[in-house]
Design goal:
The chain is 55% helix and 0% strand. It is mostly helical. Helix 2 (25-37) crosses helix 4 (61-73). Mean pLDDT is 78; it is low at 102-108.
């Protein structure tokens, strides 16, 4: 029977026990999972299926990402966002509402100018000082 052993020093155990705030049960599960993937910290590891890790560690998506942020802050792990997938949930509604418009109208100079103006207004708002910004 071949078993793998991981380095876990008394100093590391003491550090983890003394964290303030302490690790939650879910964070301990995730820490244990990650440390077995990268016990020596000698190279970055690819976490190819975060959903599988969430299921294995019995945690929600928000708890998973909060734990990663906490690990980063406590310098337990360094995370590098290499792959980022996203989907515009609001965009689906816009496509459905405007799906009947012709492609010609989207390519017309009028619509291009409207988008240009939107970008200009956004830049003006972003470049204002924080004190002069209005709340919406």
């Amino acid at each position: 029977m071949s078993e793998t052993f991981y380095p876990f020093t008394p100093q590391a155990a003491k550090l983890l026990r003394r964290l303030d705030p302490p690790l939650t049960a879910a964070e301990w599960r995730l820490w244990g999972y990650l440390v077995t993937l990268d016990p020596f910290g000698d190279r970055y590891q690819e976490l190819s299926d975060p959903k599988a890790v969430m299921r294995e560690c019995r945690m929600s998506k928000s708890t998973f990402y909060a734990a990663l942020a906490k690990f980063q802050k406590l310098e337990l792990f360094d995370t590098q966002p290499i792959h980022l997938r996203f989907r515009n949930l609001r965009g689906q509604r816009i496509v459905r509402n405007f799906g009947n418009q012709s492609e010609e109208s989207e390519a017309s100079p009028k619509s291009r100018n409207e988008f240009r103006n939107l970008g200009s207004q956004s830049e003006v708002l972003e470049n204002r000082s924080p004190n002069s910004r209005q709340r919406f």
